[in-house]
Input
Amino acid sequence: MEEEQVRAIKIIVFGVISWGVAFILTRRIFSSYSFSFSNRLLSTAHATIAVTLATLSVQDLSCPVCPLASKPSHKQMDVMAFSLSYMIYDLICCHFDQVFSIDNAVHHFVSILGFIAGLAYQKSGSEIVATLWVAEISSPFFHLREILKEIGYKDTKLNLAADVCFATIFTLARIVCGPFLVYVSLSADNPIFIKVFIYSFIFPNYQEIVQWDQDYNS
Output
């Protein structure tokens, strides 16, 4: 096992424990709010940190997905390990929620396998990190909308601003950038499972936009 993989395993183990402890503390601090409220706070933290780290790991700003089908850099390995630790935590956490979503669980399971494949094969670092960036860039605003509603800011200008930001960023990321990212990833010499991971991470998971539509019209 290479040194980078050992480092990734340490990040994953430490990350899963840290996310779990952070959730317990968050639940105690915000005990008057729902289970989902605490989980959304951590989801927002993960998305913000993951997007920041993914941006900093880009090797060529003129071509964020370059080099294609290549060995991930140290920074990209760290990003994948960090997000893998969160996905493992969140998959476990969602089993304790009163409303269990099979779609969400499957999405997390595929994501976990995708990150593991990237770390194990040590390939497709640029594509996986770019996929993470596209998938998570709108997440903070998605969760912010629900957080604002729970603390009493539903039907306010602040909540409307979060709605507009989410809809705009989601559209640009998933519908404009997403198809291009999937195309270059499927065209490159990537392992088949990583191709499936990238496709499933970008396209089928429209839970966010469906829930936004339901909440907006409720």
The chain has a mean pLDDT of 88.
